[in-house]
Amino acid sequence: MEFFKNVKWFFEELHEANKEFVSGVRQDVKEFRTDMKDIVKEHNPTMGKVIEGADRLAQAIGNFIKSNPTIFEPKNTIVPDMKSILRESKEWKELKRDSELELADHLIAKRKGYTHHGLYIGNNQVIHYSEGEVRIDSLEDFKKDCEIRVIDSVATYSKEEIISRAFSRLGEKRYNLVFNNCEHFVNWCRSGGKMTDSI
């Protein structure tokens, strides 16, 4: 009996190690993509702008698809429900209590027809692009009675640097749905880039 317990323990540990490895590889790939894009922009600004524009357009399309999954779901199919898969994913954590939030968390409020992104800055406050401006609102105002989640987006800066970067753009009024939206803002604060999983 002890032998089987050891075998079970071995496979459970192997499974956990594999999950950590895959998560680390995904993080490294995201960081590599962001770094490569920054290098291209540095050495060839024109090409960098093209890549940035394509990146933002793909992100906007991805956001639209995520926000309106029923439009794109084929009827009578055996394709798995992506919503339930994302819900179970380790990268999406449903908030149980506001007290579980950590400084510089990437927040998503699931609103009717779209998702809204913000950065948690402590004291039940969120900095985000709202009504065309980077501003600070209370967590309750950010939620607007919606479901809220934390997403594990790439963070290449410390929490303090992320918050500092966010405050450096406070009051900015250059919102653009395709090229400079709320998700771009949070990703820029956390990693300096605008790459997302929707690409």
UniProtKB/TrEMBL annotation:
UniProt keywords, alphabetically: Hydrolase, Lipid metabolism, Transferase
Sorted alphabetically, which PANTHER family does this protein's record hold?
HRAS-LIKE SUPPRESSOR - RELATED (PTHR13943), LRAT DOMAIN-CONTAINING PROTEIN (PTHR13943:SF77)
A GO molecular function assigned to this protein is: N-acyltransferase activity
Organism equals: Geobacillus thermocatenulatus
Domain of life assignment? Bacteria
Q: Which Pfam families match?
A: LRAT
Q: Name one GO biological process term.
A: N-acylphosphatidylethanolamine metabolic process
A GO CC term assigned to this protein in UniProt: cytoplasm
Provide the organism lineage as a comma list: Bacteria, Bacillati, Bacillota, Bacilli, Bacillales
Listed name of the protein: Uncharacterized protein
